[in-house]
Amino acid sequence: MRNFLAHKGRMALSAVAVLLSVAFVCGTLVFTDTMNTTFDKLFAATSSDVTVSPKSASADGAPSRTGKPDALPASLIQRVEKAPGVGRAEGGVGSTSVTVVNAENENMGSSTGAPTIAGNWTDNDLKAMEITSGHAPRGPTEMMVDADTADKHHLKIGDSLRTIAVTGDFTAKITGIATFKVTNPGAAVVYFDTATAQKELLGATGRFTQINVTAASGVSDTQLKQNVAAALGSGPYKLQTAKEAADAGRDSVGSFLDVMKYAMLGFAGIAFLVGIFLIINTFSMLVAQRTREIGLMRAIGSSRKQVNRSVLLEALLLGVFGSILGVGAGVGLAVGLMKLMGSIGMELSTGDLTVRWTTPVTGLVLGVVVTVVAAYVPARRAGKISPMAALRDAGTPADGKAGVIRAVIGLVLTGAGTAALFASANSSKAASGSGLLGLGVVLTLIGFVVVGPLLAGGVVRVISALVLRMFGPVGRMAERNALRNPRRTGATGAALMIGLALVACLSVVGSSMVASATSELDKSVGADFIVSSGTGQPIVPQAADALKKTPGIAHVTNYKDMDAKVTAPDGGTSKNENLIAADPTYQQDLRRKVVSGDLAAAYGKNAMSVGETYATAHHVKVGDSMTVAFKDGGTARLKVAAITSDDTNVDKAAMYTNITTAASYVPADRMPKNMIMFAKADDGKAKEAYASLKDSLKPYPQYKVQNQADFKQDLKDQIGQLLNIVYGLLALAIIVAVLGVVNTLALSVVERTREIGLMRAIGLSRRQLRRMIRLESVVIALFGALLGLGLGMGWGTTAQKLLALEGMGVLEIPWPTIITVFVASAFVGLFAALIPAYRAGRMNVLNAIATD
Question: Which of 85, 269, 557, 783 is most exposed, with minimal Cβ within 10 Å?
Fold first, then answer.
């Protein structure tokens, strides 16, 4: 306890590292648990006792490819009402294939990816909402909106909104505002009267997307479901109790929440890993500084176990203290994340804040275990100090044999990791190559950490020759200080190395993906313009017609994803193959390499093409016939007219047929709408056509018109945003690494107190002393950065070789990013040295010399 309190400042820095890591873990758990609670309450509140819906309805509520949700006949309601135990049954209409805009054509939907939901106002909606202003819609010109959307877009009663659906556009005036009784995570919700919802959203009256059934008093949901199922008999229906519907809704968002949760926990794990180096360094230096003290304790009777135990108990105190603060900080972090999500449109209420008992327990256990494990090696080293050490100067004797063994192990691990990376880069299959990549990353990382002290000697000398020599004697002293204890320098640099290695790796992968996609677009895409929603919504017919009527356009190509079961001549059957129905002009919009046959013939009547991989797997050749069973349509026998190469990123492994062929087997009302469209400008009129297309689509803000330059920039921006999020999460590990540099320098200054006093006595000024410490910090930071960036570029290059198997064939090293990170590392070193350098400069010369 005395030792712990005697080094409060040093322990505080180590505790901050534990605090940050535990806070990130607990914050992630609280945040994702709160999101789960929010969605659970929402799904529970909106689910009726039993829901009857079409069996083919999308489980996750995604927009239908036809633009119209699957529906049930209204006559089913009467059959449901006759079932025993039914208190009430009512039809509901709901669609997510809509866009709602104001008079200025501004989209009233969420900007976070949450859907816009349109439907009819029912008694079941009263479970989750209440009308707080105005009244429910009573006719075709009236609508009601949710309060969150009204507040966000400054809507009020009397405002008119236009709803865009596949059946056409229609305008209604806001007559009411309804407020959620539970938290709405961000969806925009609009209501119409039942007749209007049926006509405008489903295209026909007498249809409902679901039937909401309420149980009579004393009837359980399970019993009610059985009774309704018996009343309906067999048919294309899906019945769910309130619990089953809520579970299905939770599953639909669960995969996204799980990915986010485990990704954030992964970054927290990286921060913990970096924190281990900080703790090891801290306790190693504290043990070294107490060598004489420990030797004296051994001389008067302390056993090795007692010395070992005393150091581990210090670590335990540190872990408990840092973890308790980290748990509290984690709750605060979760609240901050909720506020951040609220600022970008995803509402999460602090009233739903969920702190499960497992969260603080997980944080405490992780923090304490990691801290104690990290302190074990220094504690074991302390226990080995002999009583004779009390007669020597402070400092543990170097173990040359251990250093040699460490270097050999490090070199072996690095060599094995390099071999795994090489094998991964030369792998012919992505699945096996990814396993080798993971193994190579782990082995090279551990190898570099273990061999760090050996590398420090050479790398620090090279960096010093380039950076420090210009500072004369002060620079040379900074170099010698960094080289004085290679193990310490290696461990401090390794903490920074981990975060920067991941930054470099992801930068290489991201840049290579953008370069590969750009190269592929230049090579394959012949269309001048690409039109899409970017949200999975189909292009409504009125928008498609506006595109086709645009002046200056040579042609517009329709492009539809077809759901079909394809049977090859060898009998192999696959569901939902990537079958695309397109206009013949798509051959001009996408340049596909043909292995055999004629692609133009594939757009003929009852013809198709297949990809090379599929053709090889099923022994398909030009002239064979394939059986294609279209969803919601008939079964066709299509002749294979061409086999296309799969050496592409655009429409990889796609099968093509003519839209006319598909339409002859699929009823018009079940034919998918365009998910994307392509256009070609008249010769020499690309600029004018681009402006005209944008004007044509102004009434439809949910769609984007992009030329190839726009498309490339959009891709670059999307990858850039993803990388920025990752870099932000990695910043935690880098902050912990900076704390490690601060702690190492601060303890190093204490360790060299007498030496500093002697240097000051023979003429070293305070300014020179501070510069020496700052330069030492810079060279340590640059050492870690050089190792990290080199390691990360190796990982990234190997990953790109694997991506090349999937068509990402261009390797691009983002040198501006790499150089910027390397230079920024020098400033990180300067920043980390500010406090230690300032404290060293304030030392009293005589007191420093008198220090024992």
Answer: 269
In 821-841, which positions are buried (b, 16+ CB within 10 angstroms) versus exposed (e)?
bbeebbebbeebbeebbebbb
Which amino acid, one-letter code, is at 267? Answer: F
Give strand ranges (E) for 600-711: 607-611, 625-630, 635-644, 655-658, 676-681, 704-707
Pinpoint the alpha helices (H) of 290-303: 291-299
pLDDT of residue 396: 46
pLDDT of 2 over the 80 cut: no
Half-sphere exposure of 93 (CA within 13 A, CB side): 28
**DSSP bridge pairs for 420:** none
Tell me the two tokens of residue 645: 């190469």
Nearest in space to 63 (alpha carbons), one of 744, 622, 534 = 534
Whether the pLDDT of residue 394 is over 50: the answer is: no
Dihedral sign, Cα of residue 703, residue 706, residue 710, residue 714? positive
Examine the pLDDT at 9 and tell me if it is beyond 90.
Answer: no
**Up-side HSE of residue 761: CA atoms within 13 Å toward CB?**
13
Q: Rounded to whole angstroms, how far apart are CA atoms 460 and 787? A: 11
pLDDT number for residue 391: 56
Angle at 466 between CA 461 and CA 468, to 5 degrees: 75
Which conformational region is residue 665 in: left (phi greater than 0), alpha (psi within -120 to 50 degrees), or beta?
alpha
Here the tokens at position 297 are 């304790």
Contact yes or no for 51/239 (Cβ under 8 A): yes
Please choose, from the candidates 635, 646, 653, 643, the residue with its C-alpha nearest in 3D space to the C-alpha of residue 566: 635
Which amino acid type is present at position 799?
A
Separation CA 176–CA 422 (nearest Å): 65
Q: DSSP state, 127? A: G
User: pLDDT (tens digit, 9 = 90+) per residue, 293-334?
Assistant: 777 887 888 888 888 888 888 888 888 998 999 999 999 988
Residue with tokens 């599953």: 251
Q: How far apart are CA 485 and CA 349, in angstroms?
A: 52
Predicted TM-score (pTM) above 0.90? no
Residue 315, SS3 per DSSP:
helix
Looking up tokens 């704390």, which residue turns up? Answer: 739
How many other β-carbons are positioned within 10 Å of the β-carbon of residue 561? 18
Residue 292's closest CA among 198, 392, 407? Answer: 392
Selection from 269, 276, 807, 759 nearest residue 518 by Cα: 807
Q: How far apart are CA 850 and CA 852, in angstroms?
A: 6
The 3-class SS string of 264-278 reads HHHHHHHHHHHHHHH
Q: Which 8-state DSSP code applies to residue 206?
A: S
Token digits for 751? 């360790």
